[in-house]
Amino acid sequence: MDFERFKRTHAPTDSQDTFQLENSYTLDVAVDGTIMAKVGSMIAYTGDLSFTGKASAEGGIRGFLKQAATNEGTPIMAVEGHGHVYLADHQKKVQILELGPDDSVSVNGEDVLAFESGLSYEIDTIDSLAGAFAGGLTNVYLEGPGRLAITTHGDPLVVEPPVSTDPSATVAWSGTTPAVEVNKNLSDMIGQESGERFQMNFTGGDGFVVVQPYEER
After folding, report:
1. pLDDT tens-digit map of 81-94
2. Please, which of 29, 92, 187, 198 could form a disulfide with 132 given CB 3.0 to 4.6 Å?
3. For position 60, what pLDDT does the model report?
4. Nearest to 131 by CA among 171, 168, 172, 170
5. Order of strands, edge to edge, in the sheet holding 120-126?
6. Residue 139, pLDDT score
């Protein structure tokens, strides 16, 4: 492939859409003010932008995620100014969600890539999963309207409740709330406990659950 063809094939899309996929793994955010993004996700940017870490609950983002030193959740940064920022996270696939005024979603804190600053949100920890994750599972509850980008290892599967999922493979859910149970019947043949012993049980006929073909560790 010659240089000019290579440049044309892989050049960024000329668009002013706030959130746009450049490919399956790269998010292009047109910044005109402030957006929030996962720390370490910036791979390139153009224009006049500044990046401010917001890892602490005492920072400008009210209680967003726990300190990275605890290995729980993921710190974020405010991207401010005017320009384009390109975001990616370890070659995970990027999914863009458009939340309406009455829409809400809970996302595993590790799988939040970016969101518009106008979204309202709060943080919660599922302490009943402390046996599977140190300190429990940190998730972010976001309410629209606004855009949100999440990441998945591979192509996600979106299922409707009732359904039971592996917490390590559960990315997000909406319109339903999980109950965590321990299935004592699931154990390895050699006597060790299987990770699938912990289950998130989603009930009700509304909503959806997003799982990925990968177990976070």
Report:
1. 999 999 999 999 99
2. 198
3. 37
4. 168
5. 120-126, 137-143, 104-108, 170-174, 208-211, 157-159
6. 86
DSSP 193: B
Q: Which residues contact 5 (CB under 8 A, 6 or more apart)?
A: none
**Residue whose token pair is 């070659």:** 91
Who's near 200: CB < 8 A, 6+ residues apart? Answer: 164, 165, 166, 167, 170, 178, 179, 180
pTM equals 0.84
Report d(CA 173, CA 208) in Å as an integer: 6
Judged by phi (left if over 0) then psi (alpha if -120 to 50, else beta), residue 169 lies in alpha
Which candidate, 62, 60, 65, 12, places its Cα nearest to that of 39?
Answer: 65
Chain Cα centroid distance, residue 75 = 12
Structure tokens at 51: 């990046």
